[in-house]
Structures are given as structure tokens and as C-alpha cells.
Design a protein that fits this description.
Blueprint lengths: L10 H12 L3 H11 L1 E4 L5 H8 L8 E6 H4 L2 E2 L1 E5 L5 H24 L10 H10 L8 E5 L4 E5 L10 E6 L7 E3 L2 E6 L6 E5 L6 E5 L2 E6 L2 E11 L2 E4 L1 E7 L5
Antiparallel strand pairs: 1-11, 2-4, 3-6, 4-5, 5-15, 6-13, 7-11, 7-15, 8-14, 9-10, 9-13, 12-13
Helix pairs in contact: 1-5
Protein name: Fe2OG dioxygenase domain-containing protein
Organism: Paracoccus lutimaris
Pfam families: Oxygenase-NA (PF09859)
Length: 249
């Protein structure tokens, strides 16, 4: 097993990423999430941070499991789930995103008639997950090569599910890879699926609905079903960091 690599040792680097996150227009973000079920936050990570995080992929000591998608019918490509403790930068971002998402998630659940409410601190939600038997960390690092893709899916993992998750593009489109667009589909009742392609630059984060989201109708809000995936890589290699806020059973 390869040795664990500590790639961002300075607390200042984690703080800078948190500051960049805090500086975004969160009112515009909430409007985009309500309108489309996804929103892009540009420049959450620097190019150097992206390269350093992607460079962890070969080092098995950071990860609890390795999934090859073709073996399970998920598509082509592979990913690895991090083990605890998470790399400082990834764990710091997971905590830093939470206060900006939890209130919107509570509003969504209220509009969809769901009783679940989320606490102010992510650590408190993780305790709920662990008390329910969901103890395995879910942040992950994905790697795609030529011809690889990710089928449309939802990342649920247990009874406790936070309704939003984050993907951060670590590779540079047009230089490191071509193709590989992030794709969302939305299925409304009695309607055909709507597809949206979300363009990303290196370091951009996309926040998106995991499972359902509310949409306003003539008789109040109703639920639509969301799925996400990645189109076929034409050339090169694409790395993505995924931040899922609930742990797995």
C-alpha cells in the first residue's frame, strides 16, 4: 500500500479556500438552485490546489475503497472513496459549504412536505448519520480516461440523505481532456426528461440536487427527480472531487 501524502499542510491554504467560498453571491446561488436544481461557484480551488488534490489518486492510503464503474454497470472510469480523516482541504470545504446549504435544504424539505430538518453544524449531522449506522465517509475522487463516462445516477447510500452535493473539476478542459461534460436530468410528473449540460472550468464547483427538489406549480410545490452523470471523454484524463454530506451505511 502506498504511503499517505499530506499535500496541503498549511492551515492558511485551507483558510484561503474557505474565504473564496464565503465571497460568493449566495443569494444568487439560492435563486439558481431553486430555478434549475444546480448552481456553479467559480474558482473555489486554485489550479495548484486542483493539481495537488488530483495527485492523491494513486496513493491508496488516503482511500477506503476503489470502484471500477464498468464492473457494476455504472459506466466507464473509476473512483475512490476517501477514508477518515479526510485531507484537510477537502474536509475543510465540506464543513465550509454546509452553512450555505443547510438552510436552503431545510426550505426544500418544507416545500416538499418532508419532516427532516438539518442542524446548523455539519458535525451534528454526521453524528446523526453515525447513530443511524451510516459511518463510512463518502467524499470521493473520480478519474476518467478516453472513452469513459458516468451513467445517470443518484448518490443516496442510506436513509439519511442530504439533498445537495458538490463536484469540483480538478482538470483543465481543453488542455487535460476534451468531452466529459457534467450533465443533469430533471424528470417532472407526466413530462419528458429535461437535460442540462453544466460547463465548468478548472477549480469550479457545481452544487446540485442529489435526488428530489421542489418546483412551484399552480397548486403549490411538487417534487421533481434529478439525476446526474458525465458524458464521454474524447481525449485525455479528467479528475473530479466529489463532496457528499451524508455518510454511507
Amino acid at each position: 500500500m502506498s504511503a499517505r501524502v499530506d499535500f496541503i499542510p498549511a492551515a492558511a491554504d485551507v483558510a484561503r479556500a474557505g474565504t473564496r467560498l464565503a465571497d460568493h453571491d449566495w443569494a444568487a446561488f439560492a435563486a439558481a438552485m431553486d430555478g434549475h436544481g444546480a448552481a456553479v461557484l467559480p474558482g473555489v480551488l486554485s489550479a495548484q490546489e486542483c493539481r495537488a488534490l488530483a495527485a492523491l489518486y494513486p496513493h491508496e492510503a488516503h482511500f477506503r475503497s476503489h470502484i471500477r464503474m464498468a464492473r457494476h454497470g455504472f459506466g466507464r472510469g473509476e473512483y475512490r472513496y476517501f477514508r477518515y480523516p479526510l485531507p484537510d482541504l477537502l474536509g475543510g470545504l465540506r464543513s465550509a459549504f454546509w452553512p450555505h446549504l443547510a438552510g436552503l435544504a431545510n426550505d426544500w424539505n418544507a416545500r416538499m412536505g418532508l419532516a427532516r430538518r438539518y442542524p446548523d453544524q455539519h458535525a451534528d449531522f454526521l453524528r446523526q448519520c453515525h447513530d443511524a449506522g451510516q459511518t463510512r465517509p463518502t467524499p470521493l475522487l473520480l478519474q476518467y480516461g478516453p472513452g469513459d463516462y458516468n451513467c445517470l445516477h443518484q448518490d443516496l447510500y442510506g436513509d439519511l440523505v442530504f439533498p445537495m452535493q458538490v463536484a469540483i473539476l480538478l482538470s483543465e478542459p481543453g488542455r487535460d481532456f476534451t468531452g466529459g461534460e457534467f450533465v443533469l436530468t430533471e424528470q417532472r410528473p407526466r413530462m419528458q426528461s429535461r437535460v442540462e449540460v453544466v460547463p465548468l472550468c478548472q477549480g469550479d464547483a457545481v452544487v446540485f440536487a442529489v435526488h428530489n427538489r421542489p418546483v412551484s406549480g399552480s397548486r403549490g410545490s411538487y417534487r421533481v427527480t434529478m439525476r446526474h452523470g458525465v458524458s464521454r471523454i474524447r481525449e485525455g484524463q479528467r479528475h473530479v472531487a466529489g463532496i457528499i454530506f451524508h455518510d454511507a451505511a
